[in-house]
Design brief:
Helix content is 44%, strand content 15%. By secondary structure, it is α+β, with helices and mostly antiparallel strands. The strands form eleven sheets. The chain has a six-stranded mixed β-sheet with strand order 3-7-8-6-4-5. β14 and β15 form a beta hairpin. α6 runs parallel beside α9. The longest helix is centred in the first third of the chain and has 45 residues. The protein is globular.
Amino acid sequence: MTETAVTNPSEVRRRDTWLDHPVVSWWPALTVEKLLIVLIILLTVLTRFYDLGARTMAHDEINHVVPSYTIENYIYDPVTHGPFQFHALALSYFIFGDSDFSARIPAASFGIATVIFAIFAWRRYLGRVGALIAGFLLMISPYILFYSRYTRNEIFIVFWGIVMLWLFLRYLEDGQPKWLLWLTFISAMHYADKATSYIFSAEALIFLALLFLWQALHQKWPQARSKELYRLTVLLTLILLVLTVGVYMLTKAPAPAAGLEGVTGPTPVLTASRLPLLICAGLALASAVAVIVQLIRGLGWAQIRSLRAFDLLALQLLLILPLLTALPVKLLGFDPMDYSQAGILRSMAVFLILLVVSVLLGLMWNRKIFVKSLAIFWSIFIVFYTTFFMHGEGFFKGLVGALGYWMSQQSVQRGTQPLYYYSLVQIPIYEYLPALGTLLALAIGALRHLFSASVDDPFTPPPTLDREAGLSAQPTGENALPPSDQIEENVINAAVEPAAVEAASLGEADAPVQESVAPRQGWVQRLFSDPPSQPGKANGLPTLVLLLYWSAMSLIIFSIAGERMPWLTTHITMPMILCAGWGLGYLVEHTDWKALLQKKGLLIIALCLLLIISVSRLAGVILGTNPPFQGKELIQLQATSTFLLAFVGFLASAAGLFVLLRGWKPALFAKLALLSLFGILSVLTFRTAYRAAYINYDNAKEFLVYAHSTRDMKDVLAQIETISKRLYGDKSIKFAYDRNVRYPFWWYGRDFPNRYDFDASITKSLQDYPIILVGGELTEKIKPVVGDNYYAYDYKRMWWPNEEIYRNLSLSKIVADLKDQTKRSALWELWFNRDYTQYALAYNNPSLTLATWSPSDTMKMYIRKDIAAQIWEFGVSPQPEEPEVDPYAQNSITLDPTRVISVAGNLTFAAPRGLAAAPDGSIYVADSRNHRIVHLDATGLFINAWGSYANVLEGPAPEGSFNEPWGVAVAPDGLVYVADTWNHRIQVFSPDGQFIRMWDSFEANGIIDGFWGPRGIAVDQKGRVFVTDTGKQRVVVFDAQGNYISQFGGIGMDPGQMDEPVGIAIDPEGRIFVADTWNNRIQVFVEDEGGNSFHFVALNDVDAWQSDSLDNKPFLAIDQNADVFITDPDMGRILRFDEGGHILQVWGGYDNTYLMGIISGIATTADGTVWVSDALNNTLLAFNPPPVP
């Protein structure tokens, strides 16, 4: 079957007439197409609404469902995205009541609307078959399905996006103004929904700008020289823009958290590091202005406005221009999120300037359309952001909040996902079918020259390309263009009568030609004149170019500029599905099904499927952990028999195809094979989607969700409801929950009038609550309150995907893992079945069962015994926990701090961690979340500070910059050593903060090694540097220059082994004391006789450090009497031991007068002062403990 271009619409229709065949003779109205549409829509409704309320509300959902419950109190907050979803949820609650099910109705409804829109609207540009396929793929897409059942903004944005792309093509097709107004409405809804609207606008502006420049280049220019100059200027601009982006990526560095000596203030606009970027940006801007000047002078204003791409470009840019207010405010060195009176006035001034510019340019472009668009856009914006005029402050926050918050978060990589997070993780695991379909569309477009297509048929090239016509040929006959000299004259006098140059517009036919020229008008009238009308359809549309561009650009921009979270994969998936629908639709419509059926095509399809399945099975057996012909054990015989059966299937299918394919054209068989392959992939994709949405929806096996609540939370809720109803007949029971379990009980406790949400303030008043829910570090702090009066039950509250599986990938690692038989089989089981059993064994990771899953978060449910006794049936009660005795109670003292310091320089401390005392009694503080080191004198007065923020995962981290430093130590020579924890390196400074050297890697036993999250650091009298490499469970020893000496430790519970070592200190005799956190002990090491190697000599168990929270990282210090002081972060107390491990003193904790938060770092000075850092209350505390009796 030859494939020739079809230009006759009647011929176009013949390719898909099978869709019009009646399914049954007695009901001729029920055609194949209608049946397929009904089935897809019904299945879409079923898959979106089935068991919709079963899954426990996830962390991110609760941020939306709770504020919507009291919508009258809702005020826009950029952290939880735009206001639209809150209003949609409130409407759903109003109609259907509040529940998990009703909270997800809006998402499910938009998921259904997306499929329906694809089927009916996109058939215009994908073909009837392609639209059906796209609707089907949207229905079975794992990501689209999952987030159609999830209370986040993502599925709304998918809908806004699929409509927006369609409107672009619709307006390019016929130029009717109504499509611009609809586009305004969709844009306004997107901006009322989420800040991804800025990313979508950026993608759209780039595409439309390139399309406009291309169209302008193919217009009839009055002077060839002007056109050539325009071409060169465009090329220069593009080069400068690429150069500017490159310089930005090379010099990008987040604003410092604190300047030298703690001095802060507005970031200066012009610095030495910014100068190259500003120069490149200025040159690019100047070149862009030159392009505009060349366009206006060469083509004329009317001719430019006759291009439909320009209309779309102008509308998109001018509508959002005022919403870019945060950008110039930031560039001027101010904080866009400053909601003070001065900040509001400053931002409003910038907003008004941008609004005036937008309005003036809009009136120049198309005053009628722009005024209507302005009214539509800002009406929607104001209504939603003010919560229907109830909260006026929401309007201002909406102007600057979304973009301002996004810019402020560029230094915070949420989850710190790798750049390949979408391309090598999410898409290969879930959306492989749309990705392959996109590659198929790219191949077809390239081979068949279909990147632009005829308006009448998406699979036919536009009429013969003309050098001066761009995407389509100019009209002929009645609609023929006027002579060249007429065009030139009209272009020169474009503003006089714009209709005279309508026919020169790219890709637009049927334009009337004005023969007469009106008298010249003034420049104001010419600039603000009505644009030329644009009747008639375009001859060609860049459909495939747009879809391919949007797929690629979405992958790139969300990988670079987004937060790299799983749900953003939906926005990459949507355009890929449209591409796949186009490509597969082409294959189906260009396959001669009649000839195929006459040649036993159905049998060949069956044989193709059998061949693909048998080859896959053969590969699985050969590459698996049990290859065939390896022995006579039962499992080996099973592998052999499986191989033989698959081989027989392969031979039979191959032989059958060999016989039946005689006389077939290779192209026809290739299409059939491709369709068979995509059919199998469709089944696998549906299986993947089904398992994610209905089987693994409440556990951590899937990667398409992040912070995920467990099923245990609904079980806990059911128990609380049961207890309350049995005791009181309603939900009036008093129950308390802490900040660590606020999610999900902020939502699930809404109907309990006597609930109590508390933070870290634990008092005896909690004993009035029969049920207490706590998590994290508070599980230890609450023990004195519950005592022996409560039963305790453990639950898993939340879990996250195990990121170790895909982190630190490299080509060599991927190849090595695929070559390893065991790892290869483990990866297959993980991908195909989400079975982590083999993976856990192959990679020695025991934390991959649901019972042991890490990372996860646990909680305790305490039920008071007197309440439990009233409800347990048949006299059976749970076994009580044995009352715990505090072994340190006899040594507890009450001790308040003599000094409390919260400010150093111009900054308040932010999670201060490690401390170090200098010989002169001054104190160095690792102010971790201010990313700086602070130096205080012996009385606590500020001396100086240094440091700024930089993250090696985001780009260069220059000397003197930090990413949450935890440890600090002072050497005998006065040099200051800093553990730059999350830049995984050690830095050395002079006492006044001058950088000296740093190292992040070292050679150990001939192998290049590095740190992972070093936290503790100490320097002995010989100048040797001891670093607790916490993430690698060891202590590494260096000389003063950073040269590797030795290491000791290693993960485990045996003496000498460690689990989460943090604090480290060296006593006057040179013994090394290490806080072995998760083994709940202090270990002591000494140097071997040969020197430079160390061995274990003693350990002392401590009754502390019980939780594995991120803040439970204890430090220790040793005074001149060799007494060992340790911090107990979760309990907020200090423990003092003698050198033999005997307890001497304890202060802090629940019984102390002064309640401390998370006590972290500790240091002692020669005068007996004990300094500690409180990372929760952001303070530094000084104590003078009494002498030990």
